[in-house]
UniProtKB/TrEMBL annotation:
Keyword tRNA processing in record: yes
Organism domain of life: Eukaryota
Residue ranges of the region described as Disordered: 176-207
Protein name: tRNA pseudouridine(55) synthase
UniProtKB keywords: Isomerase, tRNA processing
Annotated ranges, domain Pus10-like C-terminal: 220-449
Record-level Gene Ontology MF annotations: RNA binding; tRNA pseudouridine(55) synthase activity
Record's keyword annotation contains tRNA processing: yes
EC number per UniProt: 5.4.99.25
Record-linked SUPFAM superfamilies: Pseudouridine synthase
């Protein structure tokens, strides 16, 4: 491809590089396009009166002289949505027409205009008070309400969008290019230099896409799962639910109504148990991430827990529900991998004498090597993981077996079902090999997740179910 033609417009001498602020630059009038007063002043360019304009500014495209009406139009666009939130303040990010950045660059390069002049900042100065007035809320960079607003300018956006699309288009394949035949792709073409002065706009910018979001609110607590056949999160295969209930649905019961949030509520837990495994003892820590809540002033964690506990009595129970912060959420995620867990299980092991049981019960902590279980191999990498069994206690339900209640404590991440059965030799040693018989697991419960969480509050605003 031919190199891009050199710009033909004469380049203005680089003026006032070191003291741009001190003396206004006086470019040859013919070499600049019309500018608004605000841009002429901001760029520190002294212009003849006939080049000053209100609506056809070649630098800001009219954004600054019309800041007030544009801000009002932006605020009007989102007003109805914004007033639905009980947030007292808002943060705002305003996207301006894409052509502004290259136009500023070319003005600085060709006229020595003041580089640090920013249309964005100038626009915000005028726009924020107008938006505060229309929205009836105060501006705060901290949010929690975040407005993402756009001002577009179709006249100048379209050519830029076309250029971007062209640059992204994959190069055409040569005739002989294909499998095993490599052809050097042509170097990406240089963007066409912006003419100077840039084209004079004939239309004014308008309101583009606008979105309103609230920072997430997080609720933490612990859950008990008292019944089997409840998955931790919604479990669907080919559109079919595999369990009637999920823990995530139970513990977030009523929350979407209370907060008028987006319906998808995030769920994080310190580890997980299978659908057929109960979660007993003091429960497992979890976090609910409430996205885009319209109402947070009325969030009552105690009432929420009580509602869930009544609705799902005997199935899923929530305790210590409270509002938590981001750092506290991290403790739950870390806890998943670090904390020890205790379990009890019902094991079928025929032909075991009491002497063997006593031997097992006297074992000190020992290591097991677990190759990824066959049942999860389709979604987890095939790895060997060493895990520690801290202690194990076996007790026959009736003298002589073959049913045993087995309690044990292991390092986080150990697969208990496989430790009992041996998983066709993939877990070594297993309870089966230790007993010298085939042991099968009939029921499993998690009885302790050793993570003290959520942290106690000074004035604990939480349920004590
Ligand atoms: Zn301007």
């Amino acid at each position: 491809m031919d190199p891009a033609p050199a710009p033909t417009t004469p380049v203005a001498p680089p003026a006032h590089e070191s003291s741009a602020a001190a003396v206004p630059v006086v470019p040859a009038a013919a070499s600049v396009g019309p500018l608004c007063n605000l841009c002429a002043t901001g760029l520190r360019l002294s212009l003849p009166a006939e080049l000053l304009t209100q609506s056809s500014c070649t630098h800001c495209l009219g954004v600054l002289p019309h800041a007030d009406s544009l801000a009002r139009a932006l605020a009007d666009t989102v007003r109805e949505e914004v007033v639905a939130y009980d947030a007292p303040s808002f943060a705002v990010e305003i996207m301006l027409p894409r052509a502004l950045a290259p136009r500023h660059t070319v003005y600085v390069e060709r006229t020595g205009g003041y580089i640090a002049f920013e249309v964005r900042k100038e626009f915000a100065k005028s726009a924020v008070p107008v938006m505060e007035e229309v929205l009836g809320k105060t501006y705060s960079a901290e949010g929690p309400l975040r407005l993402l607003l756009a001002i577009t300018h179709a006249e100048t956006d379209a050519p830029i969008a076309a250029r971007v699309a062209e640059a992204r288009r994959p190069a055409k394949r040569g005739r002989f290019e294909g499998k095993g035949c490599k052809v050097d792709s042509p170097a990406p073409s240089e963007p066409e230099p912006l003419p100077f002065p840039p084209s004079t706009p004939t239309t004014l910018p308008t309101v583009g896409a606008c979105t309103v979001r609230r920072d997430p609110i997080r609720l933490g607590g612990r859950y008990l799962k008292l019944e089997r056949h409840i998955s931790q999160t919604l479990w669907r295969i080919k559109g079919q639910r595999k369990t009637e209930l999920s823990v995530a649905e139970c513990v977030s019961f009523g929350l979407a109504d209370m907060t008028q949030c987006d319906t998808e509520i995030g769920f994080i837990a310190a580890g997980r148990e299978d659908a057929d495994v109960r979660m007993l003892g003091t429960g497992r820590p979890f976090v609910l991430e409430v996205r885009n809540a319209r109402k947070v002033d009325g969030i009552d964690p105690v009432a929420l827990a009580e509602r869930a506990n009544t609705e799902f009595a005997g199935k899923v129970q929530v305790s210590r529900m409270c509002v938590v912060n981001k750092d506290e959420v991290k403790q739950v995620k870390d806890g998943e991998e670090l904390k020890a867990k205790e379990y009890t299980c019902l094991v079928w092991a025929p032909g075991v004498d009491q002497r063997k049981v006593d031997e097992i019960n006297a074992l000190p902590a020992f290591q097991i090597d677990q190759q990824t279980p066959l049942r999860v191999l389709h979604r987890r990498p095939n790895l060997m993981r060493p895990k520690t069994v801290y202690w194990i206690r076996m007790e026959p339900l009736r003298e002589g077996g073959p049913l045993y209640r087995v309690a044990l404590e292991t390092q986080a991440g150990a697969y208990i079902k496989e430790f009992i059965t041996g998983d066709t030799g993939r877990t070594r040693p297993s309870l089966s090999t230790l007993l010298g018989t085939h042991a099968d697991i009939l029921e499993l419960d998690v009885t302790k997740v050793a993570l003290e969480w959520p942290p106690a509050r000074k004035s604990q605003h939480s349920s004590t179910a």
